[in-house]
Fold this sequence. Notes:
Blueprint: H1 7-11, E1 23-27, H2 32-43, E2 47-52, H3 55-67, E3 75-76, H4 82-96, E4 101-104, H5 119-147, E5 150-155, H6 168-188, E6 193-200, H7 209-212, H8 215-224, H9 237-244, E7 255-258
Parallel strand pairs: 1-2, 1-4, 2-3, 4-5, 5-6, 6-7
Amino acid sequence: MVEAIPREKLEAIPSLFSLTDRVAIVTGGSRGLGRGIALALAAAGAHVIPVSRTQPDLEVVADEIRSLGRRSLPIAAEVTDEAQVQRMVQRAVDEFNRIDILVNAAGIVILKPTIEFPVEEWERVIRVNLEGTFLCCKEVAKVMLRQERGKIINLSSVRGLQGRAKDPAYAASKGAVNLLTKSLAIEWAQKGITVNAIAPTFIRTDLNAFLLDDAATRDWVLSRIPMGRVGQIWDLFGIAIFLASPASDFITGQTIYVDGGWTAA
């Protein structure tokens, strides 16, 4: 006998991707992928708290969020500083009473031959990309566990699956983010919290435009992407909204590649 699908489940489909009045924290939210995802979540209905180290840049993004009809609270914080992360979370709760979504988009990349890679720069990449993600997950999860619900989205990269010359720290950090995502997903799976990662290939931003404007680099990148183009920030909008929404409630511990086919080739 085929199990009947409750009518209310069918009638609820239009609301599956709605983020109306959800509260989202987006680290790295003042520029690049973080800014783009912050605006996408706001356009889908969420109130958004952009976080980065630079308050003036955050104010610009907050105004963009408000122009979409949503509330915003820009918070300057260093994600590698546990005390600052704790204060960030407390300010969010004081203002909105809850946190429904966390997007960890803060990150840096340094490319150098390994034998010339200073330990201090290795540590900086690992601290921002991995430790910063861990600290934000840890502190926000305390709120989500009390709520018995929450969505955590970590920004990874195809580098977390495939290595690249002169890229020891960034690749290692993103591979670790993938396994951190799985570990947290398992730990909180029965607590109402999903934890997933988005892993893009080259997405054109102000930070990497100089690389993609180099003919040799651009040709190499395009040769690896079956779709024949680099990504744009808006290529991440759909997956970010999906993973933040009720539509993904039975998906956790996954790293989803947004790469034009890079990792399939």
